[in-house]
């Protein structure tokens, strides 16, 4: 026997209505797209050449963020996007102050409930440095994806539009959360810590010595690895508590080198990154100036001009313990500079510095 209430509704029909309402609200939530903010800083992805044949001759940092977004209407299929023009520069000109400005803007945005992910469009020359910096200092599990292009949008087979689409898709995806700062270039998802620009004029320029984390295909991320080094929410460094990065310079090692660069830098830096030959080797006639600088409190960090899948071994050919030097582990010189510039805002102790280079 069917029991009807005063309005003639059976229990079965009421249950069906509740289920339908629940489903519609859940599909409504499922359909609510992630909110992604695109922070534009310039670079080739915003570049323009004179003709479509100019894939390598062009001017970087010309196209504003609203035009970048308008140029890829498909972005609206994967996320609810809005843009901000933070800078409009070629990234070889990035300064520590600009890194701090970008980091603080991102830190403020990721605290907002109406922001689910961040994309930073950036020149490729120092993209790896910015990505590593953000990986160290922004305390959020929300995806932060840095993206560039090797060809300007005006060129035949320009790569920027697909790179941007991939970046927004990854920044919008829940499974990108908690993996540290990411870089999407040439269909790959790279760790912001590991990735480096390994080739200067090809679309497959970005490589990670330990391999990509995954791929993006038609707006979907496919993951095969996850980072193991400390980053973002697990970092002891916080952009909101940093006023100014420490001054750190890099000196390049080679045969017949002189110690002039070290002497010149030595006056104004907290650390020198030695981009040594081989396993971060130091020519014997360079040791005295390094010892002199170390004696004045300048940290000496041995990195290597050789990168791509190894790491500088402590106390191998160089007596690091005896000289109180630090090794950069697998970080290339430019990444070692970023980590040192951040770490030296918290410690001047070489043993603490070495721990930090092991852990990040
Ligand atoms: N000059 C390069 C830069 O802005 C252009 C590029 O490759 O993005 O990093």
Automatic annotation (TrEMBL):
GO MF, one annotated term: asparaginase activity
Domain Asparaginase/glutaminase C-terminal intervals: 248-357
EC number: 3.5.1.1
SUPFAM superfamilies xrefs: Glutaminase/Asparaginase
InterPro entries per the UniProt record, alphabetical: AsnASE_II (IPR004550), Asp/glu_Ase-like_sf (IPR036152), Asparaginase/glutaminase-like (IPR006034), Asparaginase/glutaminase_AS1 (IPR020827), Asparaginase/glutaminase_AS2 (IPR027475), Asparaginase_C (IPR040919), L-asparaginase_C (IPR027473), L-asparaginase_N (IPR027474)
SMART domains: Asparaginase (SM00870)
Domain L-asparaginase N-terminal, first and last residues per copy: 35-225
Active site: 44, 124
UniProt keyword terms in alphabetical order: Hydrolase, Signal
Signal peptide: 1-30
Membership in a protein family: Belongs to the asparaginase 1 family.
PANTHER family, per database record: 60 KDA LYSOPHOSPHOLIPASE, L-ASPARAGINASE
The name this protein goes by in its record: Type II asparaginase
């Amino acid at each position: 026997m069917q029991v009807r209430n005063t309005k003639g509704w059976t229990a079965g029909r009421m249950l069906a209505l509740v289920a339908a309402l629940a489903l519609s609200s859940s599909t409504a939530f499922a359909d609510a797209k992630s909110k992604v903010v695109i922070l534009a800083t310039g670079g080739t992805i915003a570049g323009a050449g004179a003709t479509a044949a100019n894939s390598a001759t062009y001017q970087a940092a010309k196209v504003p963020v609203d035009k970048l977004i308008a140029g890829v209407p498909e972005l609206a299929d994967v996320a609810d996007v809005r843009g901000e023009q933070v800078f409009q520069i070629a990234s070889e000109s990035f300064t520590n102050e600009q890194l701090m400005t970008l980091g603080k803007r991102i830190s403020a945005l990721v605290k907002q409930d109406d922001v689910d992910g961040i994309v930073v469009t950036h020149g490729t020359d120092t993209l790896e440095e910015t990505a590593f910096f953000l990986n160290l200092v922004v305390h959020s599990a929300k995806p932060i994806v840095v993206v560039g292009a090797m060809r300007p949008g005006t060129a035949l087979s320009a790569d920027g539009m697909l790179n941007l689409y991939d970046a927004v898709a990854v920044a919008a995806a829940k499974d990108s959360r908690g993996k540290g700062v990411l870089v999407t270039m040439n269909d790959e998802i790279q760790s912001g810590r590991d990735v480096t620009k390994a080739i200067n004029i090809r679309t497959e320029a970005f490589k990670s010595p330990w391999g990509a984390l995954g791929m993006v295909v038609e707006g979907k991320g496919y993951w095969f690895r996850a980072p193991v080094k400390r980053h973002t929410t697990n970092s002891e460094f916080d952009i909101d508590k940093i006023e100014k990065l420490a001054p750190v310079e890099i000196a390049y090692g080679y045969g017949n080198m002189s110690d002039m660069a070290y002497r010149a830098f030595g006056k104004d830096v907290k650390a020198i990154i030695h981009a040594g030959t081989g396993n971060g080797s130091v020519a014997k006639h360079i040791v005295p100036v390094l010892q002199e600088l170390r004696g004045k409190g300048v940290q000496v960090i041995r990195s290597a001009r050789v990168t791509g899948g190894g790491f500088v071994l402590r106390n191998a050919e160089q007596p690091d313990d005896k000289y109180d030097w630090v090794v950069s582990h697998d970080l290339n010189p430019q990444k070692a500079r970023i980590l040192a510039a951040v770490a030296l805002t918290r410690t001047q102790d070489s043993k603490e510095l070495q721990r930090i280079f092991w852990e990040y």
